[in-house]
């Protein structure tokens, strides 16, 4: 697997234009993407358009709203923070807890390890599914129990290479 260097498009979410595009690290700082679970085909979002620290990150049917748009912030150490467009907060493993089943939240972006991810492609194809790995212990972001239920939490789990742990991204224009 290789680290994130390009974001591939997966299609259109209702009401917004999504296109395939390669991005450089500099432009990745300015672009937002929707992140769609490969198993459930639902998008990663901050629940209920919340703006507060501690709001849950979950899956929901894709609508392309700002609470479903994410910016990938590449850091000098090769890790990536994932920032929500609506709240400007980052996906966070609360308290640095990476135990199986830990539900992810948003928190002010401080860019410490519990907000850093390795973004890895499943193949060399730039439109391949990606996984988000937590560097300290190699847990990944998943939708638990292979849920296809709207509102199911995004959580940490040991990698099993399942589709519930893989994601597709599409850059949002506009």
Automatic annotation (TrEMBL):
Q: Which domain of life is it from?
A: Bacteria
Boundaries of each Ricin B lectin domain copy?
A: 30-170
UniProt cross-references to SMART domains, sorted A to Z:
RICIN
Does the keyword field hold Signal? Answer: yes
A Pfam family annotated for this chain is: RicinB_lectin_2
Listed PROSITE patterns:
RICIN_B_LECTIN
Mind listing the UniProt keywords for this protein, alphabetically?
Signal
Residues making up the signal peptide according to the UniProt record: 1-28
Name the CDD domains for this protein: beta-trefoil_Ricin-like (cd00161)
Question: Which protein, by its recorded name, is this?
Answer: Ricin B lectin domain-containing protein
Taxonomic classification: Bacteria, Bacillati, Actinomycetota, Actinomycetes, Kitasatosporales
């Amino acid at each position: 697997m290789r680290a994130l260097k390009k974001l591939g498009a997966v299609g259109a979410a209702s009401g917004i234009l999504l296109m395939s595009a390669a991005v450089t690290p500099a432009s990745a700082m300015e672009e937002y993407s929707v992140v769609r679970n490969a198993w459930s085909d639902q998008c990663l979002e901050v629940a209920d358009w919340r703006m507060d620290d501690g709001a849950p990150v979950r899956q929901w049917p894709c609508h392309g709203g700002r609470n479903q748009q994410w910016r990938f912030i590449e850091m000098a150490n090769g890790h990536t923070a994932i920032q929500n467009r609506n709240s400007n907060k980052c996906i966070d493993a609360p308290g640095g807890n990476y135990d199986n089943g830990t539900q992810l939240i948003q928190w002010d972006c401080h860019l410490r390890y519990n907000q850093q991810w390795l973004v890895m492609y499943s193949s060399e194809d730039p439109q391949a599914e990606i996984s988000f790995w937590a560097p300290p212990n190699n847990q990944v972001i998943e939708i638990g129990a292979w849920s296809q239920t709207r509102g199911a939490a995004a959580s940490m789990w040991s990698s099993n290479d399942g589709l519930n742990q893989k994601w597709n991204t599409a850059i949002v224009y506009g």
